[in-house]
Known about the structure:
- The complex is a heterodimer.
- By secondary structure, chain A is α/β, with parallel strands linked by helices.
- Chain A is built from 4 helices and 6 strands; from the N terminus they run E-H-E-E-H-H-E-H-E-E.
- Chain A is globular.
- Helices cover 40% and strands 22% of the residues of chain B.
- Chain B has a single domain (2-173), classed as Rossmann fold, CATH 3.40.50.
- By secondary structure, chain B is α/β, with parallel strands linked by helices.
- Chains A and B meet through loops of A and helix 5 of B.
Amino acid sequence: xxFVTGGAFNGKKKWVTAFYELERTPHQWHSxxxxxxxxxxxxxxxxxxxxxxxxxxxxEQTESPADARALFQKSLTEWGQADAQVVLIGTDMMKxxxxxxxxxxxxxxxxxWCFQDAAKAADRVDTIWYGIAETLKEEKK
Amino acid sequence: MIMxxxxxxxxxxxxxxxxxxxxxxxxxxxxxxxxxxxxxxxxMDERIWHHQKRRTTSGHRWVxxxxxxxxxxxxxxxxxxLLIDCVTTLLAGExxxxxxxxxxxxxxxxxxxxxxxxxxxxxxIVSNELSFEAPASELTAHYMKSLGDIHQQLVQASDRAMLVxxxxxxxxxxxxxxxx
Lengths: 141, 180
């Protein structure tokens, strides 16, 4: 599993598309910005975009960051065991001022924890800065 | 040669950019400082004064051009080195001007900068890092997207790109000699 993160509007999607040559590779692209449900993995190459949004969906369901995290970990286990190259794309929104609204604070906490879990579960982690990747972690397969 | 650097507020990016500009100055070429901020209040005057003071005491001769819109129109010569300070103030000007479309602001800025880079010896571009916060409104989100798109295109076009963190340059693209 490959976890790709970085700030908003930094070209994460574009980088993943180029890195995995998705324009000529059969793949499944699922965006949590459009679809709330976790998809069944159908291809050998699967991109799950909007991981922070998925965390938000879990938090809305559970109303508890800890419970959302537990559900997220279950998903991570499934994706990690899948017979596919799974790429997770998540926007880092954890470096700002503490939000006024309680839900927004919980969302940020949950996203931070889930991103740590994603980074731990992934064998490769990259952060993207305006189209340039910095590899934070890369395990030999 | 196009050089891009970005950083947080007061991260030391302007002094680093000035150093780069001075180093790449060509013999006989001018050092042009393109100041893109609009004088809106006293606090802004203070900022401008701070930057001006550093340049006058730098031991190098800077020519200051104050222009916050259509910077592609600046008259440059082949040997000139330009320091553009900065993309965020440019975007503020181009985005909120009334005679042209806000959603084309990013394209205009990238085009203007590449035009200048094509005419001059080298261009050093300074910008601010995008925030890592969830945008507060649609307008903020669109504004952030414009800035992110500009940064992506400038980094792609650049020979060197770096992020300045607390005065320490982190090279993201290109090669730099130690002490440069």
